[in-house]
Amino acid sequence: MQFAKDSFFLALQERLAAINPARTVTLNGATVPAIVVTENLPPRFQERLANTFYIEWGTAEVVSTWDGGAILSLEVEISYFSCGSVESMVDRGRLLGQLDSELLSICQPANTEKRDYTQSPSADLGTRVSWNLPSFKAEAEEEANGRVERMATMRIFFF
Description:
eight-stranded mixed sheet, two-stranded antiparallel ribbon
């Protein structure tokens, strides 16, 4: 399962770097595309950063089985928020829309090679990871800090 998770995350991270090289975040002193997996962050990670995609893994299911194998699926939640780019925050909705657009772009095509990233260079495992396109939940507005948030859900499928 870890190979599928890594392959999905790194495909989206590479695609984000290609479509918007300026969308970055600094984590542990390294500047990377602004898409991170929450389980990979240190336990005492500070508050979430605006304009950053956060991946959280959900439930896994067996979709189909046959002699010698199974197709599995894994729920994925991707959340993000914007506070706008000006002090009055009047453009926060516009920036949230830009993030929506970027997420849709990096999720297409809806597949990538499944690779083993525990070695360098990574090794092709001979299968693919695929997914459905994101389903967006309605935006919410945080009264305390004025930010607007979005969550998208999807499923990845793999052998």
